[in-house]
Amino acid sequence: MQNANASRQQVMDFRRGVDLLLARDLVDSARIAFVGHSYNAHTGGILSGVEKRIGTFVLMAGVFADEAYIFDSTRMEVAQFRKKIGDKALRDFFEQYAFDDPIHFISHSAPAAVFLQFGNEDEGIPEKMARGYFERFAEPKKIAFYKAGHALNRKAREERIEWLAERLKLSPIDHEAVERIPGLEQQEKEKD
Asked: Is 131 in a helix, a strand, or coil?
């Protein structure tokens, strides 16, 4: 329940953020994007269905069908969680908090363009599951898989930057400058 309410609040906060951006004369309303990883990708899935002022979404390593994930997952920790809570309590929860399951929103993502990124080595989100999510999003959409775990990798970052630059009509990206951003090198070492 806490996560569901936090997710709902996060969607409202992002929508308020768009209000603030659009209140500024310097912001081009046609060039607003949302980038989210894992839990924030989950939130972005919901946002894609309700916030039509965001034209571009990059959603990385997210679960976009919570109820199906809990009941269909073969991961031991998910099965243990399911057993601990009980099927009826979980079904009741998903009925009461349906507003927190992106599956009810992602088919309404148009006209926004959505780029989904997943790692082939992410145990929590197998490729078949990721492709199922992709099918549920509206067009335009794109999906990519990387030789990486949940945190993804440099190639994913490069493709994400290129896609955003193209969608938002930004100047060409200086990849050497991106690589000089403090902390990126350390993050890459921690992911490997």
From this structure: helix
Please check the confidence at residue 185 and state whether its pLDDT lies above 90: no
Q: Evaluate whether 3 touches 98 at the Cβ level (below 8 Å).
A: no
Burial class (CB in 10 A: 0-12, 13-18, 19+), 96: exposed
Q: How far apart are CA 57 and CA 116, in angstroms?
A: 8
Q: Two tokens at 20?
A: 């603030």
Per residue in 162-184, pLDDT (tens digit) is: 999 999 999 888 888 888 888 77
Q: Look at residue 111 and give its three-state secondary structure.
A: coil
Tokens of 60: 């990385």
CB under 8 Å to 138, separation ≥6 — which residues? 106, 107, 108, 109, 110, 114
Q: Compute the 3-state secondary structure of the chain and give helix, strand, coil in percent, each to the nearest 5.
A: 55, 10, 35
pTM: 0.90
The answer to whether the bond into 111 is cis (omega within 30° of 0) is yes
Give the residue ranges of DSSP H helices in 73-181: 76-85, 87-96, 127-136, 154-167, 175-179
